[in-house]
Amino acid sequence: MQRFTAILESSLMELGHAVRIARPKSAVGKAQQSGRGLEKWLGYLDKFVFFLPELRQSLAWADIVHICDHSNSLYVPFLKDRPHLVTCHDMLAIRAARGEISQHKTGWTGKILQRLIAHFLSRAQHVACVSDETQRELSRICKRLENRTSVVNNGLNYPYSPMPDDEACARLRHMNVPTQEPFMLHVGGNHWYKNRLGVLKIFSRIRQEAARDLKLIMVGQEWPRGMCEFSRANSLGESVIALLEISNEDLRALYSKAECLLFPSFHEGFGWPLVEAQACGCPVITSNRPPMNYIAGDAAIYIDPEDCESAAATITKSLDTLDGRREASLQNARRFKSSTMASKYLELYEKLAPTARQATCSVV
After folding, report:
1. Which domains are seen in the chain, by residue range?
2. Is this prediction's pTM over 0.85?
3. Which pLDDT tens digit goes with each residue over 206-236?
């Protein structure tokens, strides 16, 4: 959400608009450090009690308020008649709290919170969704919104582009990634829907079936126990390299040198790594589900994320054709420019606040 807000702010300012970011400071909970237990709930005091005076000051300045994270829809009652919109990134937490997602259990306090988030989303002046799939789920659950939703696809969140080979190799060596061995790449956190264990299972099958050696680079968080156990049981060893907290430029180098991005996610609101990879000319292999099969477009290879054996077979057959998809990947990524995203939001601002003086207040 912070990255989305930052790219929206810079894009709007490039277009000549005044933007003020208002965000809660961590006074009590320091929730951003762990996001768990008591710290998490004390953090809500920061967001919904101590932040309110600053929010009121920002409201007095702004012509329109843009709540950049739908989980902050709880601010909607404080906006009263102020023109505003909310960006909805996904409905996964709300759906899980409703019991629609068996893989993710929500506690009773979480169910209350997600019910409130959905309630106030329904009362927003307008909600912009980052994909058609997110809009479909939002409209199904928040029926009161009726015609007050639209789709604004995310723009590229960093100027990813193909990195010159010598620079990319130098960065790979710095990360202790072999430069002479082909590798597949995965980017994602440990949320259940990212299917990181599935990535290992698919890769393990590919190693058995492919006629050439491949490595797997996994960029994200520290592995949970299940992934470690699977790796040991299947002797993946040095064939898989885990990288934590790398820079955007290091990630750009990985995208530029990878054989492909393997992204068998179960669900996504948008799926930023798909566009990041393609912007670097990296072919994408992802789930044949919305929104992935829209975001990655015709350039991608599609698999069933729940059938690891079939997915591995499809990928193995496609390995020799990946280079032919690089130009199509670059072309598809051009659909998701940050300037295009900002222009579409400006069109919404003008509809919601036709007398605005070109000022916005983004709340995250």
Report:
1. 2-155+337-363 (3.40.50.2000), 165-333 (3.40.50.2000)
2. yes
3. 999 987 789 999 999 999 999 999 999 999 9
